[in-house]
Amino acid sequence: MKKQTESKAAAGAPRKRRSQVAEIWKRMKRNRMAMIGLAIISFLILASLFAGVLAPYGYDIQNFKERFQSPSASHWFGTDNYGRDILSRILYGGRISLKIGLVSTAISGCTGIILGSIAGFYGGRVDNIIMRILDVFMALPSMLTAIVIAAALGPGVGNCMLALGIATAPRFARVVRGPVLQLKNQEYIEAARAIDLNFFQIIFSHVLPNVLAPIIVQATLYVAGGITAAAGLSFVGLGAQPPSPEWGAMLSAGRAYIVDSWWIVTFPGIAILLTVFSLNVLGDGLRDALDPKLKN
Amino acid sequence: MQVFKYVIKRLLMMVPVVLGTILILYLMMMAVAGDPAELILGENASQEQYDELREDLGLNDPILVRYGKYVWDIVSKGDFGNSWYTSKPVAEGILERFPTTAGLASCGIFIMIVIGIPIGVISAIKQYTWVDNLAVSLGMVGVSMPNFWLGLELIIIFALKLGWLPASGFYGPAYWILPGITVGINSAATVMRTTRSSVLECVRQDYVRTARAKGQSEQKVVVHHVLRNALIPILTVIGMQFGIALGGAVVVETIFSIPGLGKYIVDAIGKRDFPIVLGGVVLLAICFSVVNLVVDLLYAIVDPRMRTQFQGGKKKKKEAKAA
Amino acid sequence: MEKELLKISDLTIQYSVENSVCQAVNHVDLKLNRGETLGLVGETGAGKTTIALGIMGLVPDPPGRIVGGTITFDGLDLVKATKKELREIRGKKISMIFQDPMTALNPIDKVGDQIREVIELHNKGMSKAEAAKKACDTLELVGIPAERYDEYPHQFSGGMKQRIVIAIALACNPELLLADEPTTALDVTIQAQVLELMNGLKRKLNTSMLLITHDLGVVAEMCEKVAIIYAGEIVEYGEAEHIYDRTAHPYTEGLFGSLPSVADERTRLTPIGGLMPDPMNLPKGCKFAPRCKKAAEACKEQPVPLVEIAPGHFCRCLFAEEKEGRYE
To answer: Min CA distance, B250 vs chain C (Å)?
Structure first.
């Protein structure tokens, strides 16, 4: 069975890219959940990009007369302990949260892809050494690794992205290594070696395009995971620091006031939930569209 | 006997991984910690006091020697060093708090299994019905829910608005409910999704058809043939989720002011009291590795194909040839 | 009439996939007497397995459904039978050998227990030990030492696994055995062994058998009667000699043409051109017409009936009767 799928993957390799994308898009369009996810995430991205136009107030405008306002027509999501408009802060905060998700995934993806393909491609001792080192990193749940790295690096958005990237890179490497290991014995890779292409040429033009599907799916899910984890780090005081409108930082700051002002923590939380939900749904849909064999 | 040997082998294999983890953590912490002697003494100490303390803490040795000493103290005396602030032994502090965190994580695991597996099975069996659609959607929401936010919302609803349950502290069974749910809900959703797809996968298998062809009742087919086979991937996920529950407990303890290991670590991070952070995380890493070992052993109980790893390499090869 | 064990008439089974309907089995009539072996021959996807599953009451629902017709087994209509009645028949009176022995066994149960399961189910009141003893006997019957009772499927080779599948099927001395390509997944040398074993056991237990295959060689060895099925329809049906020596349907001819023969010393096989029609969208007239060399306009206009061209020899072809002369 495995052999069959392998040879199928190999046979499908040189097919034209454009028609493949069209085919995947066609399959995606049939998946209602995935399309909802795509719509929500597009909406959220646009909303945070145009926060400057859309937000009714500035994200750091304090108004002491209007502290702890519950949701109303003038402040849809209410105001916080400084009288700042929560809706505006969420819109601006989306930029930070999305950026953290994307950048941390990019860090984790690049590191993971490089390590994973080296390990898978060279195999043997190289593979062993790399994977054992990664095992060490994976001896901890990734959230704990991220907390520890962030603790060492110190708080801040940049460090937070780096910590998340490093913490998840080993898992990314694993995702890439498996297929690379399988692919490297395919005839067409051997042919590429025979004509003396170097490691990077083979990896980038012949191997990676064929493991793109799991990478894309993984990356989508990691952006979602990154946003949650970043919010978690901010929540324990290791990520973005107040007065930053990063969603986790808003939650953390609003925690003290939940007795009377539930809205201060509720709306940023919903924003995280929506973003992560839509990315997860999208990732699932992508996986089904990219590999219909896996679908139930 | 073979099982025993296998466990020993796996425990030995764990050693380098744990040592590596400690090394990386140690280097990372110590590289950024600054000068602990200065931190401990504050600004008004004399040079002599300072030098004495540095000597006491062994700070004049090269870092690898200090790492060696640190590990040796743990192995030989169970000594994780002392807090830089209170000078109390770290081992005492973390061991005192560990049961609370382990209990909280177990609570989460319990909720994850009790909610995740049954709903997953029902959802798979009722595929294409509204029950399945609902379960799948809820599962997706559950997976996407940040647990610290869920914790806050649960406090707002059940403790503050309805007044049914206590909001914070850790004094009796009622105090476990909200934190337990908070830790468990993501994992329950993940386990539900895995269970569903695993059951769907197994339902299609030929051996299930064979069982039906024997005249077996539908209930027994599901429990005996489908579920037992479906359990194999579910076990892996449960193992992984235990780690995630431990990580989650760290954050959740902060929300509910639970005096566990997680809160201890987070508070120590705030004060940059690195011996505590290091000790706590090392304990969690060991714990995580042990859980993974247990999962692998459970694997072998459920799946006879895995039992071959208990046997020596030679025998395994022989069997592979026979097959 | 007393000899008759199984009678299928007008059986129609459909699969609904999204918005289209796949007509897997169309108005099939079959008869099987006690102790007899009927070969059901056709290409992959012709609906052979679906017929067997229909008899077992195991057509996967959804998406599959028996739309019409009757399956009379020993006086009982299996299409209308309750689930409970079916469960009592399955494994006891009718059992099935599946195509792929690699996947037909539960990987996490001991093989002996998998045989014991069916024995216990159909012998209420039998003790566990007795059932296990009987399972051991059954293992021995198919040529596997009883000591291997406690081993798991992954410890057996493909041929051995198929023996276990056969043991499960025969454990309760069924009256009817449905064998769905029992040898397709096996090596050629093992194939002969397994067929030999099945033939011997069948004779010993006086079991009737429906042998599903696409291998006409196997049919010649095992079957008294043969039904050729194409796109869910029986196109030719009769005694084995009728089919082999007085082939009437062009499709059957095509099947023989694509078979290598030692006697003829043909150097080249003549495959049937084209593919089976899409079961979602079957042609209105003769289903084989698009691939048939003899097809005329009349073939494509309306469904061709199954006609008895000689006593006991049925054929679904407008030109079959012309050949009737060859019987004389």
So the answer is: 38
Strand partners, C13: C25, C66
Q: Contact at 8 Å (CB) between B291 and B239?
A: yes
Q: By the CB < 8 Å criterion, does A1 face chain B?
A: no
Nearest one of B238, B202, B196 to B222, comparing CA atoms: B202
The model's pTM is: 0.80
Which of B207, B299, B319, B321 is the best residue to mutate to test the C interface, defined by the most C CB atoms within 10 Å of its own CB? Answer: B207
List the structure tokens of C81. 């039978």
Residue (of C316, C310, C317) closest to C246 by Cα position: C310
Residue C304 per-residue DSSP state: P
Cβ A239 vs Cβ A246: under 8 Å: yes
Contact between A276 and A98 (Cβ < 8 Å): no
- What average pLDDT does the segment A259-273 reach? 87
CA distance linking residue B178 with residue B154, whole number of Å: 7
Superfamily of domain A30-60+73-294: MetI-like (1.10.3720.10)
Nearest to C90 among B214, B302, B323 (CB): B214
Please identify which residue in the block is written with the tokens 């043997």: A124
Neighbours of C188 (CB within 10 A): 7
Q: Which chains touch A (3 or more CB pairs under 8 A)?
A: B
How many CA atoms lie within 13 Å of B162's alpha carbon, on the beta-carbon side? 8
Cis bond upstream, residue C62 (ω within 30) = yes
Q: How far apart are CA A48 and CA A90, in angstroms?
A: 8
* Domains, chain B, with CATH or none: 100-306 (1.10.3720.10)
Tokens for A11, please give them: 């046979």
Write out pLDDT tens, residues A270-280.
999 999 999 99
Amino acid at A257: Y
Cα nearest neighbour of B31 on chain A = A152
Q: pLDDT tens-digit profile of B56-112?
A: 777 777 888 888 888 888 888 888 888 888 878 888 889 999 998 888 888 888 999
Percentage of residues in chain C with pLDDT exceeding 70?
95
Interface of C with B in 133-172 (CB under 8 A): 152, 154-157, 165, 168
Give the model confidence (pLDDT) of B27-63 as tens digits: 887 777 667 777 777 667 777 877 877 777 777 778 8
CA distance to A189, B49, B134, C176, C275, per residue, from C162 (Å): 38, 82, 42, 18, 31
Q: Do B152 and A228 touch (CB under 8 A)?
A: no
